[in-house]
Amino acid sequence: MTLALFVVQVPALIGHAFGVGDGLGRLDAAGRGRFVTAMLSLTQLLPLFFLLGAVLALLFPAARCRAIERRHGLLPPDHPLVAPTPGPPPAPAGPPAEPDAGSTPAGSPTEPDVRPAPSGTPAPHFHQQMQAFLDEHAPGTRLRISTRSGLSARVYPGGRRAPRVGVFAPLVHLWDTDVAAARAVLLHELGHLRRGEQHVAGLGSPFTALVRVWPYVLVVFVVVPVALLFATGNATATLTLAEVVLVLFSVPKVLLLVVAALWSAELDADRWAVRTAGRDALVRALRRLEQGDHGGLARLHHPPVRLRIWCATRQESGAVQLLSALLWPSALLAQLLLAVLGAVPAYELLGASRERATREALALAHHALTADPAWWVTLAVVLLWPLVRRVRIVSRGRIRRLRVAPGGRIAVTSARVHAAAVLFPATVLLAGLLPLVSRPSGGVFADDANDAYERRPAPTGTPSGRAGGAGAAACPSPSAPAAPPRPRGLPSFADGPSPAPGGTALPPADAPRTFHAVAVASLEPLPGTRAQQAAAFGDRMRQAHWTLHHDGRLTADVPEVPALRSTGVRGTTRWLTGRRTDHTDVSATATWVEARLVVARDGTPVRLDLVRAASQSLRAVVDCKEFTTTSSTGVRLSLTLGQE
Fold first, then answer.
1. What pTM was estimated for this model as a whole?
2. Which of 8, 277, 431, 636 could form a disulfide linkage to 281, CB 3.0–4.6 angstroms apart?
3. Do 410 and 402 touch, CB atoms closer than 8 A?
């Protein structure tokens, strides 16, 4: 179910990644914004790769088994490295012989592992005792032993129907000191086998690997690329940071579901161990193995030991049953809260006010309550669970009288717990269906750009402005605006010949030449342009390559500069001009460029002086009201070029 729910989101994630990369690419000709966006997209899709890895692990359990045993040093009990040392032959009847001077005293390190029992029969080795215990409770389960520490015991698949239990040094020591607690640990692992969880959990599980590697993924694919963007002064750094915030808050949403599933499996396995071995034995085992078995990031894919002890000592209480029932929907709700917490700072980084960003985030979360299929699936699963798993719903007073033995096939749960498990997702879905939160009208960033908008009155007619009734006027057509006019007051290179309107003369060049930008000699923002915008344009020009063609055209490999045609030549100086207009469904952008290229023949560096201006008109019709806005930017700079 988790895999299906996540795969449904993959097309939206990919489309979002390409959309953001396209937008950043227009601002960042050097491609660094696209690179960081690709890293962020890979980070968002990484959980899918782990889920697909889990599917492959299901299909090829033998390959997973070989990799696990090689990595953890798990060996069969008869392997020479772990097999017991054979004991000496039985001594002949009669008085014991006196030890020689060079013989080994009793109790020395070289004494055989197999010691005689009080009856004279050698006691079984610990691995024989463990294997016998496994055969008693889970026939067909094979034992594997490792001399390494750090873990106690783990299950993993040896094949499709050949489960295995790996035992490590801490459990061997516990078996020698407290055999009842060690048996409780093995019963916990057998609890996983009862559910078939060795195929998705245990050693070599892609789910636990996802939890373990996640901090390193964030550093390599998110923190480092974004830090490099800020270090180089890239113009897309702020926009990319907003995307980073969304990634940091969105991907843990997937981890929450994985962690909730793993915790549910661990608590259920504890419940089986308590029913079979007793509460005290499991509690002793948890306390003994707490330090070495669940350190570091393992605390994420295993519940805290205190929580496990609390649940083990209250197996029959309604609180523990309620925790198990609500763990999954609680993870879904935490997902939603993370989405809100991530959307608010992302909106603010993009320029929205705090109030507007909060309202937008809450509206999106309210919509997601019913749009997300996970809530509907959860409600359906909880409703049908008693039929699927043959669970009997009874009142609290009858639970003890109907308690089923550990090997029984019908489980019993409280009617109150089941009702709470149903009401939780049902209440959430009801909140999503009710009109509690609505999305604010207007654009997301309207609060910060009201002065730039020119609101026109709606046509007369109905109160909403829609056509209808006698004498009502039609709504404006949603068409793209006309191309904006040339900004006033643009500087020009007055010492060169003025471009003739409509002229077609193209003074030829001597031969095609290619140049690359060496440095930005000077940079000046024109009135109405922020210094940050001018600096960003200069940063993109610093990466540009230029080509002077035989017909006198000058072209660059950056989209901000249209092809320039020559309008005059005097000595080593050439004057050029160019214009381009781009249209979309709601906007028109016009770009003007005038240039002066000085190409000396005495080895003097080539100089290119540019004046660039761009005007953009936006037009939208919302509820029969027309909104238009026009903005302009301009910059003058001088580049030092090197001929290639």
1. 0.58
2. 277
3. no
